[in-house]
Amino acid sequence: MAIQTRNKRSVTFSMASMSDLVFLLLIFFMLTSTLVAPNAIKLLLPSSKSKTMAKQTVTVYINDQYQYFVGESRVGEQELERMLGSGLAGQTEGTVVLRSDKSVPVQYVVNVIDAVNEINQRTGQKHKVILATSPKK
Question: Cβ–Cβ contacts within 10 Å for residue 77, how many?
Fold first, then answer.
């Protein structure tokens, strides 16, 4: 008398779940890579041969429409000193990295430097401004 099992074991491997997993990972990495933007404000930086690396505390952008951005938020010229002061609060020697489009007149760059100098005089700190450039080709 032979006893037979009703459920047969299958020795084949189904690749359907593996391909689903690969497509889900592909979609995940495609979506997350488009969300990460190191520079949300597009600028054509002036070129230079010098290489100065510094730990940046605050980043200020001036685009080709002469608009100021502290970090990612747009600010007016009157609010620039207040926003820089709040970004540099608690720092004794903070660094402001200035990323200005190469078509921006020098006066707009000087406005940022003046705002940092006013903060330095008022608080007695030694914050500095570094102008970001692109490498010379």
Answer: 13
- Residue ranges of the domains in the chain? 47-135
Burial class of residue 75 in the structure, from the number of CB atoms within 10 Å of its CB (0-12 exposed, 13-18 middle, 19+ buried): middle
Number of H helices, E strands in the chain: 3, 7
- DSSP at 19: H
Neighbouring residues of 105: CB distance < 8 A, sequence distance ≥ 6: 66
Per-residue pLDDT tens over the stretch 20-52 = 899 999 999 888 877 665 555 555 555 666 665
Instruction: Report strand pairing: 68-70 vs 73-75.
Output: antiparallel
Q: What is the fold of 47-135?
A: Nucleotidyltransferase; domain 5 (3.30.420)
pTM for the predicted model, two decimal places: 0.59
Q: Are 84 and 119 in contact (CB under 8 A)?
A: yes
